[in-house]
UniProtKB/TrEMBL annotation:
Domain of life: Eukaryota
Keyword annotations of the record: ANK repeat, Repeat
Entry keyword annotation includes DNA repair: no
PROSITE patterns documented for this protein: ANK_REP_REGION, ANK_REPEAT
Repeat in keyword set: yes
Placement of ANK repeats on the sequence: 73-105, 106-138, 146-178
Gene3D superfamilies: Ankyrin repeat-containing domain (1.25.40.20)
Alphabetical list of InterPro entries matching this protein: Ankyrin-SOCS_box_domain, Ankyrin_rpt, Ankyrin_rpt-contain_sf
Family to which this protein belongs: Belongs to the ankyrin SOCS box (ASB) family.
GO BP term, pick one: positive regulation of protein catabolic process
Protein name: Uncharacterized protein
Length: 206
């Protein structure tokens, strides 16, 4: 999973360093952090992270490759737009055929990223694009390298609306990760998120 803090994290006095870390490719300025990204995917990676919708549309029009190819740290373009909360870009990628079940190098889906960020509208959109009930079940139950489901990610961030949405669609509140933690145990004590998750877990027999 890419790290959101990588973008817009520079101080104003670091502007010169930022400029030195940029290069121009086919008319688009691309950050040098994408040096390890295959050249044909660099524009797609950059605009997916920045959320520039017109530039994303252009990058997709010119894409010489698969829309689900990893573009950075194993993330697909859909992972990045979900991670950074770019709803319109997520919509465009889904319209162009991006897979909601693509996994990054940690085994996480775009849904994990959207839940971690608390992006309720994106979570709803991804859920609505499940092809059938079995696809939705897989999305809700898929675990990453630490055994976390999307609900674990939402719980850790105490994103109440996302938690409610996931539970309403059948996410398990009692599934444990590799640290033997259910989602309720990842929320801070005395929070509404924790109370909601505990109540949901208590209705299901272990």
């Amino acid at each position: 999973m890419a790290v959101p803090g990588r973008r817009n994290g520079m101080r104003e006095d670091e502007d010169n360093d930022v400029e030195e870390g940029l290069f121009e490719e086919d008319g688009l300025v691309v950050d040098a952090q994408f040096d390890d990204t295959p050249p044909h995917l660099r524009q797609l990676a950059a605009v997916s992270q920045s959320g520039d919708l017109p530039a994303l549309r252009l990058a997709l029009d010119n894409l010489d490759g698969n829309i689900d190819e990893p573009v950075e740290d194993g993330d697909t373009a859909l992972h990045l737009t979900c991670l950074y909360g770019h709803l319109a870009c997520v919509q465009l990628l889904l319209e162009r055929g991006a897979s909601v079940e693509a996994k990054d190098e940690d085994g996480a889906l775009p849904l994990h990223d959207a839940c971690a960020g608390g992006y309720t509208e994106i979570v709803q959109l991804l859920i609505s694009r499940a092809s059938d009930s079995e696809c939705l079940r897989r999305m809700l139950e898929t675990i990453d390298v630490e055994g976390d489901t999307p609900l674990h990610h939402a719980a850790r961030g105490e994103h109440l609306d996302v938690i409610r949405l996931l539970l309403a669609h059948g996410a398990s509140p009692i599934k444990k990760n590799i640290f033997d933690k259910i989602p309720a145990e990842l929320a801070e004590p005395d929070t509404e998120a924790k109370r909601l998750l505990e109540a949901a877990a208590n209705t299901i027999a272990y």
